[in-house]
Every structure is written in structure tokens, then in C-alpha cells.
Amino acid sequence: MSDLRTALGEAVEAAFAALGAPPELGRVTPSDRPDLADFQSNGALAAAKRLGKNPREIATAVAEKLSGDPRLLSVEIAGPGFINLKVADAALSDRANAIAVEARAGAGLVQQPRKVIVDYGGPNVAKPMHVGHLRASIIGEAIKRIYRFRGDTVIGDAHFGDWGYQMGLLIGAVMDENPDIAAQIETVTDKDAAIPAAFQKITLADLDRLYPQAAAKGKEDPAYRDRARKLTADLQAHKPGCYVLWRQFRAVTQVALERDFHALGVDFDWWKGESDADPLIEDMVAELDSLGLLVEDQGARIVRVSRDGDKRDLPPLLVVSSEGSAMYGTTDLATILDRKREFGPDLVIYCVDQRQADHFEIVFRAAYLAGYAEEGQLEHIGFGTMNGTDGKPFKTREGGVLKLNDLIEMTRTKARERLQEAGLGENLPADEFEDIAGKVAVAALKFADLQNFRGTSYVFDLDRFTSFEGKTGPYLLYQAVRVKSLLRRAGAEGAATGPVTVAEPAERDLVLTLDAFDAALTEAYDKKAPNALAEHAYRLSQAFSKFYAACPIMLSEPAVKASRLTLATATLRQLELALDLLGIATPERM
Ligand code: ARG
Question: Does the beta carbon of 349 lie inside 6 Å of ligand 1?
Fold first, then answer.
């Protein structure tokens, strides 16, 4: 069963068509004035222009055609020719009953499922994550879930940054600090050999400590930088010692990252890295050459991607550097080929910081030129930054980049405080309390991010994010838990659900909100904008809250009680589903 908005839209469109007007003008939207109507259609004005008639005349004719539709309580004309529709209680009851029995809680599926890869998260070996990675993870995870839920076959890939210049920097820094490793690097003969004990003692803490030092030195000292570049080229040429040491770096980083991401409710299907594209690079370069796309430029090899009509100069894609290294764009291009062979996606969504927009434009153009993807199959979904109160990308108090794990810890500490302040979770076992605090923390971070359109930057404000009041993740969890506890109580008393009969205004509102789920989900999908779904979850919580205050449940007579329990059940299912699609898990109690 389609939602009321679609069903009524079809009726209004048919009425427009019958008058000789383009049916799409009859489009129905939720009313701007919920006090006057449930839905509206403003198309009579445009239709009148087309047909050379008076808009009120058209609107009246449409209203006449709709009169007698049992789903409508009233059709009224307002102002110059706006059509206002009010839905009959019986139609709302029918819709609520349908939603209540659907596992998908009223959500539809795409007509033509596609194969989609979401490239998100994008962490790097050793380099600490910054807020851009946080947003990429939160938004990408939501987009992945929304796409999958709508019926596409979706793979989420971390596209681990493990093959660039920072690897050469680290290999050099580790060698400088550990003469034994420096000596042993030369003796390794097989790149797939077991990792020697000396290499295995390198931990993530070592890499975290060494990377910033090495990066700083590389900026100041050209000789140091050249050596790092040389080591990067050695690694990419699979020099066994470098390669085996690099495997150690990669392994210790991935384990820690997977754990931190998991704590944030972010889990990837593929942990492929830039390095996984490496085996394809040699043939790819040869092919780009044979296609006549590769140009020599001061010792480097590039692909020019600028097009006639470009408003500004787009730099070329640097494929092979003058040291012979593959660059960030090279591995991205080879990854497009790799994905094509492994999976054959119809669409690849790159959920990466807006600041990389040019990088992707360049890579995509090169891929289209080389025939590795069809125009439009590659899409960069950029986003703004999470800022500090100074309006600049968020930094730690010491001015450093933020570690994901520290951020989660900090938020969890705050969540514990908030729960205690609110007197929540007081009598629960310690491990359950911890689990709740973790969920509140994740909800706080994710909802604060996802309630904004992704292009917008926002300010990190832990106090506000973790509040149980206002438009926050914790508020939504609290509402969901309230419904759960109501339903548990009803269950304990043996109260059953039964057919919905809508009568009260708060019930009408709740059902109309439930009905709007599919439209919100479709918008989130089409625009790659999870904020549409976040907004819906918030509205649903508010509608439920008003219903709960206005409509007694447990003290009502049996049929009314049963009807309201069904409404509560449907609300909970839809709310939990919407939150889950945003990557937010709901506790059983608080
Ligand atoms: N590792 C990159 C960075 O930290 C992000 C990777 C984004 N994805 C991609 N296919 N380039 O900036």
C-alpha cells in the first residue's frame, strides 16, 4: 500500500488530467498550514495559466471531481486557488493498520535496484583521523544503510590510505630509531614472508609518535623528504624488507581502527586499501598510454582532464611522479578499475570532505576518458566541517588533530554524567549502564551531525549534543525507550493491540507523521541527504510525545487501549528503524 500522499496525489493528478491540464501539476505535498489541512496542491495556478482560465475555476473543478472520494473529509479552495485536502479519519485508520503490520513500517523499495559502492571513512595508516574522517564515517554509514534498505546491493569500502608518501616517511623514521630493523630490512628476501620479531614490536603508539615528527622533518629538510620518497617508491616496487615492515604498520593500524569504528557503529564490508589497487597500476599506465591519454610533463606522467567550457583551470591527473611513484589519484583511478572487475557497480558514492572536490573531479574525468566508468556513475558527496567555537575545523585543546577513540571516550564520559543528572539508569547493572552510555554517546555524535544537511558546517558542542532535551540523539533515544517501557507494561498486564480507530487530533497527527516516512526516506536516498530522515525521526518523536500526553492509553476502555497500543507499536518500529538507518542503536531501557 502506498502512502496517503502518493495515493491522494494520484487522484488529484487524474483530476488535473481530466481537465486537460498536465497531470504533474496536481502534485500533492504536506500542508504548510496543518491547522487548516493535511495536504495541499498548488497546481491550479500554473494549470490556469496553461489553459487560459481562472485558477479558482480550475481548483473548483478539481474539488468537484474529488468530492465523493471516501478518503477525503473535505476539499477546500483557499486564496487564489490553492486546494486544501483533509483526510477522513477512516482513511487514516486504514493507513495506520497497514503500517502497523509491515516490517518496513511503511517504507517502499526502489523500482530498479542497483549495485552501489559507498567509499567512506577513508582512514590512513598512522596518520591520526581528523574531523573530516569522523563526518565521512557518520554520513557514509547512514548512506550505505539507507541505500541497502531501499533495495540496492551495497558495499561499504573503507578505502584505507596505506600506499602514499606517509608510508615512506614512516619506514625511514622507524629505521632511524631502530638500527636492528634498518639492518634487517636489507636481509628480507620474500615480501610475503612471516613478519620478523623485530618488526612485530612496532606498535600503533610508535607510529602515532613517529609520524608527526617525520612529517614535520619532511617539510623542512629536502634530503629527508627525498629519502622518504625513495622509500615510498621502494615499497611500491615491493622491495621485500620495506614491504614486510609496511605489512606490520598496516596490521596494527587496521585492528585499532576497526575497533574504534565499531564503537561508533561504523562497520565496513571491505577494508580494501589504496595498496589493493597497486597490482593493476602497471597495466593501467600502459593502457592510458596506448589510449593516447598519457603525457610527459617534467619527468612525470599525467592525464589532462580540462574540458572546453570549464570555468576554471582543472589541474591534470598526476599518474606517475618523477620518482616513479603512484600518487593518491593513481590509486583512486586503479581502484575504479578494481571495483569494476570485482563488483561492477552502477554507482560509486565517495563520501569525502568537500575540500577534496577537485581531486575527485579530476579522477572521475580521467576514468570517463579511459572508459573505466560511464559518465555519472561516480559521484562525490562532499560535506562541510565540524568546527570548534573558533569557527575552524575542530582541534583538541592542545591544538592537535582529534583521535576518534578520544572523541568517543570524551562523549561517553559526558553521556554518563548526563544519565546520572537525569536520574536514568540508576538501578541498572553496571555493564548495562555502560552499554547505555555508549549508545547515548553515539546517538549524540551522530544525530548532531546528521540533522544538518551534509554541506553545512556545524560547531562541536558536547553539552548541547548530549542533552536529553531539544533536537538531539539522546532525546530520540529517550522517546524510543519510553515507548518500549509502555509496551512492556502493557504486555505485563496482558493488554493486547487491536485495530486502529483514529479519533483525536493527536492521533491524526501521529498517523500523518507515520505516513510521511517513505517520502523522507526517498528524499534522503535521492539527495544522499540523511538529514531528511533525521528530521523525520525527530518529528515522529514529537508527534508521539504529544499523542502520549493527550491520549491516555492504559486507562482507556479496551478497544481504545488496543488501538492506541497498535499506534505505539507502529511508532516504535518506525522510529527504531529510522534511527538504525542513521546508524544509531536504541537501548532497551534507561
Ligand atoms: N585517505 C583519504 C584522506 O585521508 C581519504 C580517502 C577518500 N576516498 C578515496 N577514494 N580517495 O584524505
Answer: no
Give pLDDT tens digits for 196-229. Answer: 999 999 999 999 999 999 999 999 999 999 999 9
| Shortest-distance Cα residue to atom 2 of ligand 1 | 122
Type of residue at 545: S
Please give the backbone phi and psi of residue 153, each rounded to the nearest 5 degrees, phi first.
-90, 115
Q: Is residue 350 lining ligand 1, measured as CB closer than 6 Å?
A: yes
**545 Cβ partners below 8 Å, 6+ apart?**
479
What SS3 class is residue 252?
helix
Query: Which ligand 1 atom sits closest to the C-alpha of 123?
Result: 1
Residue nearest to atom 6 of ligand 1 (CA): 122
Amino acid letter at 215? A
Supply the CATH classification number for the domain 404-581: 1.10.730.10
Tell me, what amino acid is at 150? Answer: R
Question: pLDDT confidence of 181, banded at 50, 70, 90?
Answer: very high
Superfamily of domain 4-87 in the CATH hierarchy: Arginyl tRNA synthetase N-terminal domain (3.30.1360.70)
Pocket flag, ligand 1, residue 331 (CB < 6 Å): no
Domain parsing of the chain, residue ranges: 4-87, 165-263, 404-581
CB-count exposure of residue 437 (10 Å: 0-12, 13-18, 19+): buried
Nearest to 545 by CA among 576, 567, 526: 567
* pTM exceeding the 0.70 threshold for the entire prediction: yes
Q: Kindly report the number of other CB atoms within 10 A of residue 379's CB atom.
A: 14
Show the cell assigned to 181.
Answer: 630493523
pLDDT tens for each residue of 71-105: 999 999 999 999 999 999 999 999 999 999 999 99
128, 161 Cβ separation under 8 angstroms: no
Cell 528503524 locates to 577
Length, in residues, of the chain: 590
Which DSSP state fits 354?
G
